[in-house]
Design brief:
Layout: E1 5-8, E2 28-35, E3 42-43, E4 46-50, E5 54-61, E6 67-71, E7 76-80, E8 84-91, E9 96-101, E10 108-111, E11 114-117, E12 122-128
Parallel strand pairs: 1-8, 2-5, 4-12
Antiparallel strand pairs: 2-3, 5-8, 6-7, 9-12, 10-11
Bound molecules: copper (II) ion.
Copper (II) ion (CU) binds near residues 67, 104, 105, 106 and 118.
């Protein structure tokens, strides 16, 4: 098993409007994302966290070929070697919807849900703003 710790921060603290100033809830959210075997799909494709949470994502590649996971807004791009698990740590400092996708060309194939390809490996992290700044 290969374990890689990555880290991403959206923006620097200064120059941000009040509503975007980093906050911390002190909550560590452990999430698991699986690249399902021969399915060209991340599971789950959508998940929600609260702004200020620290996210520890365990990302499992069930396939015997490489994938990747990239979250552009967070500056994250990690290779997911075949049959391995990586861990990514990130701080959800800004609210919004942040797409993630497979960043390593991984082919295509027929699945029980139809034909799927590398480009179907997409999802969204939603960061909810629960903190009032008045
Ligand atoms: Cu891919």
């Amino acid at each position: 098993m290969v374990v890689i710790i990555g880290s991403g921060v959206f923006y620097r603290n200064f120059l941000l409007p009040e509503s975007s100033v980093p906050v911390s809830t002190g909550v560590i959210r452990e999430i698991t994302i699986i690249a399902k075997k021969d399915d060209w799909r991340f599971i789950p494709e959508i998940f929600e966290v609260d702004r200020g949470d620290t996210i520890i994502a365990t990302v499992i590649n069930e396939d015997s070929y490489d994938h990747g996971i990239a979250i552009d807004a967070l500056g994250i791009s990690q290779r997911m070697p075949a049959n391995s698990t990586i861990r990514i740590k990130l701080d959800a400092t800004q609210a919004g919807d942040f797409p993630f996708y497979c960043s390593v060309p991984c082919g295509e194939g027929d699945t029980p849900m139809g034909h799927r390809t590398h480009f179907d490996m997409i999802g969204t992290i939603t960061v909810k703003d629960l903190v009032k700044t008045e």
